């Protein structure tokens, strides 16, 4: 029997490391799950139809320990398909981040470094209860969100992620949705609440959970790049809306 090609050995190793629980000490630099880089080099803009041109449209996704992996990866993937330059920034630095279901994701850069490359057209907060708690407790995230809101720029949060908006005083009075488990938190903070799969109220976009992430990301694309661009992404991804 012919010997296995070396590439198959690498593929097997990557599969085991990415999709099965691993210890941090077992993660080698060769097999980390990295969503490639997406640094920006142009100033951000208020979200509008002006963003339909050739100028770069950019997104900052903040990745915290305990984040929901589907909400992170689907959001990044769909936005990049829509022509948005995405930077995935680690809240705690550049080390691999263990997500809520033990999938390990490597950020493109640290949040500190990503902030130097800003501003961004949208800041995205994935959910996952542990990840949301870390986002809600972070002074750095508060600063980023306050700067974003101060410019009138887009903030998007999914699942338990909207609780970080409450903690940091972002989007006060805006209609929101969230994972049902944190609905009471949002309502007690004074937010009008909807059970819509995705909600947009001004500069705030919110969504409910892993099963609504395609719609969530498509809403971001539509807001920043237009409905025509977003609509063209649906069929190739076999998304049923």
From TrEMBL:
* A GO cellular-component term linked to this record: mitochondrion
Q: Which GO terms describe its molecular function?
A: oxidoreductase activity, acting on peroxide as acceptor; protein deglycase activity
Q: Where in the cell is it found?
A: Cytoplasm
Give the DJ-1/PfpI domain ranges.
Answer: 58-222
Biological process terms from the Gene Ontology for this record are: glycolate biosynthetic process; glyoxal metabolic process; regulation of cell communication; regulation of signaling; response to oxidative stress; single fertilization
Instruction: Tell me its EC number(s), please.
Output: 3.5.1.124
| Alphabetized SUPFAM superfamilies for the sequence | Class I glutamine amidotransferase-like (SSF52317)
Known InterPro entries for this protein? Class_I_gatase-like, DJ-1, DJ-1/PfpI, Prot/Nucl_acid_deglycase
**Keyword line:** Cytoplasm, Fertilization, Oxidation
UniProt-listed Pfam families: DJ-1_PfpI (PF01965)
Q: Which CDD domains match?
A: GATase1_DJ-1
> What does the record give as the reaction this protein catalyses?
N(2)-(1-hydroxy-2-oxopropyl)-GTP + H2O = lactate + GTP + H(+); N(2)-(1-hydroxy-2-oxoethyl)-dGTP + H2O = dGTP + glycolate + H(+); N(6)-(1-hydroxy-2-oxoethyl)-L-lysyl-[protein] + H2O = glycolate + L-lysyl-[protein] + H(+); an N(2)-(1-hydroxy-2-oxoethyl)-2'-deoxyguanosine in DNA + H2O = a 2'-deoxyguanosine in DNA + glycolate + H(+)
Per the similarity annotation, which family is this?
A: Belongs to the peptidase C56 family.
Protein name, entry field? protein deglycase
Source organism of the structure? Branchiostoma lanceolatum (Common lancelet)
The opening ranks of the lineage are:
Eukaryota, Metazoa, Chordata, Cephalochordata, Leptocardii
The gene it comes from is PARK7
């Amino acid at each position: 029997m012919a010997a296995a090609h070396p590439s198959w050995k690498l593929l097997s190793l990557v599969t085991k490391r990415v999709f099965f629980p691993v210890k941090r000490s077992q993660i080698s630099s060769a097999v980390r799950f990295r969503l490639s880089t997406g640094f920006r080099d142009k100033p951000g803009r208020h979200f509008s139809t002006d963003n339909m041109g050739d100028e770069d449209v950019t997104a900052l996704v903040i990745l915290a320990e305990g984040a929901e992996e589907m909400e992170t990866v689907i959001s990044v993937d769909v936005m990049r398909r829509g022509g948005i330059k995405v930077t995935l920034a680690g809240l705690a630095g550049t080390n691999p981040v263990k997500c809520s279901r033990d999938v390990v994701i490597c950020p493109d850069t640290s949040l500190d470094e990503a902030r130097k490359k800003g501003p961004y057209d949208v800041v995205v907060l994935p959910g996952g209860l542990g990840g949301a708690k870390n986002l809600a407790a972070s002074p750095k995230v508060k600063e980023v969100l306050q700067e974003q809101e101060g410019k009138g720029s887009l903030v998007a949060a999914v699942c338990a992620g909207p609780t970080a908006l409450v903690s940091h005083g972002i989007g006060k009075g805006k209609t929101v949705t969230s994972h049902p488990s944190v609905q009471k938190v949002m309502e007690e903070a004074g937010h009008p609440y909807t059970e819509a799969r995705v909600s947009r109220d001004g500069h705030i976009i919110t969504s409910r959970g892993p099963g609504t992430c395609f719609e969530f990301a498509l809403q971001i694309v539509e807001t920043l790049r237009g409905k025509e661009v977003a609509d063209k992404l649906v069929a190739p991804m076999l998304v049923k809306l």
